[in-house]
Every structure is written in structure tokens, then in C-alpha cells.
Amino acid sequence: MTTKLSRHGILAFFFSIPIGTLGGLIGLGGAEFRLPVLIGLLKLQPRDAVSINLAVSLITLIASLISRLSVVTAFPLLDFAPILLSMIAGATTAAYFSAGVASKIPNHTLEKWIKVLLISIGVLLISESFIPEISANLIATPLGVQILVGIAAGGLIGMVSSLLGVAGGELIIPTLIFIYGIGVKLAGTGSLIISLPTVMVGLYRYYRKTSFISAQNFRSIVVPMGVGSIIGSIIGGFLFGLVSPNVLKLILGLVLIYSAIRMFLNSNAASRSS
Fold first, then answer.
1. Could you say which of 17, 26, 70, 169 has the lowest number of CB atoms within 10 Å?
2. Higher pLDDT, 157 or 270
């Protein structure tokens, strides 16, 4: 058992570094990249992977935000405050109520949702790397419109975050770019700010349920993966200004689709052998 836990810890640590780097580069918690590792490589049940993913995402988001704010010249927090706060309100509310639903969903159903999410995000990122940024530019509309749209978008993001254990940045960033007209770099930083309370609420709800992180998984996976994620997110936070956003989106989209295919093949192989 000790050997197995040690091997899991080593794998969790080393895989979390590049995942944290990718997440830090574009303003994500890295959860969408972490899911294939937790389920495919470490052989966790989807429900266990969700709560672990939320915990490590929280660590990654905090480290990424600190490293980003230390290198960017300024973030117009007051200008974007209505948008950020409205999305946080919608996301945290949805995350609170959705976490209770997740414990009633069968593992195979949750796994299917995760695969669909990964493929959808991958296609979206690849599309964004070729299509010029077209925005509805809601940042120029009346404040009430911005707030209503923010609450609605945040609600969807919070539901996805809580059910599938992701920070929601893969939906937050496109929302800020294509709906509000915020630049990609500012959108990445805004995504980290919105994701933090959303993940905290989802994690709290899982803590209140029986489907939370076991002491064994905490020691063997969460701790080493959290340390590796901090290292990676700091690297990504300092490098995000040096990498072309379009090239990065293309690479990340391909990685997500590949990861989803690997998950599909692994689950099919497991079904045939059982």
C-alpha cells in the first residue's frame, strides 16, 4: 500500500506541474487537464475525482492570481466590478445547489459528461485560434444589462464547475471576451477572480456531503498535486505574456480532445475486461 501511495504521489506531483503551467498561462484552474490524470492514470472514480479536482483547482487559482498580479501592470478592477460581481453571484449560487445534485448522479453518467465537456472545450479553443475575436461588446451597454447577463452566465458556469469539478475558466474567458468585449489577457485574470469563490462554494458543499476527499487521497494525491500545481501556475503566470494566445488556444484544444479520447479508450478497455 505504501508503494502504491508513493507512486501515486510522484505521478500526481509531476503531472501537476505542466497542468498548472497551462492553467496559469490562460487563467484557468487547470481542472480540465487534471481530470484525465485523476480518472485515467490514477484510476479514481469520477465522483472522487471531482472533489479532489476542486481542492487542487483552488490551490492553483490562488497561486496563478498572485503570480499574474505580480507581473501585469494594472488590472481595472473597479471598471469590471459589476461584471465580475454579477458573474460571481450567479456562479456561487448555482455551485451551491448543484453540488448536492452531483452525489445522486451515477459514476458512468458523470464520466460521460466529463468527456463531452473536454471535447467541447477543445473544439471551442481550436475555433477561437482561427476565428477573429467577435464580441457583442456588452461592456458598452447599460449597467443593468451587464448585470443580468452576468448572473445568467455565472449560473451556467457555477453549475458546470460544481458538477464536474472544474473552475469554470474555460467558460468564463469566452464569456468575457465574446460577450463583454474584454481582451484575452484581462479576461484570463478576471477568470481567476470569478473562479475563486465559485470553487470555494463547490468545495464547501462537497465537504458537507459524504462524497468528500478521504484522508488517504488527501495525503497521496491532493498534497503532492497541490505543490506541483503551485510551481506550475507560478511558471505559467510569468510566461503568459510571452506566448501567442492563438497558438496557445490551438495547443490546448488539441490536448483536451486527445485527453478525452484517451479517457474514452480507457473506460472501454475497463468495461471489456470486467
1. 70
2. 157
- The answer to whether the predicted template modeling score (pTM) of the entire model surpasses 0.85 is no
pLDDT at position 89: 94
Residue 208 cell numbers, joined: 458537507
What are the residue boundaries of the structural domains of the chain, listed by start? 2-273
Q: CB neighbours of 224 closer than 8 A, spacing ≥ 6?
A: 9, 10, 12, 13, 16
Taking only Cα atoms into account, the Rg of the chain, rounded to an integer number of angstroms, comes to: 18
Among 158, 130, 155, 162, which residue's Cα sits nearest to residue 47?
162
pLDDT digits (tens, 9 = 90+) for 15-53: 899 888 877 877 777 777 787 788 878 888 877 888 888
Handedness of CA 15, 262, 131, 160 (dihedral sign): negative
| Residue 273, CA atoms < 13 Å, CB-side half-sphere | 6
Q: Do 220 and 11 touch, CB atoms closer than 8 A?
A: no
Torsion angles phi and psi, residue 238, rounded to 5: -80, -20
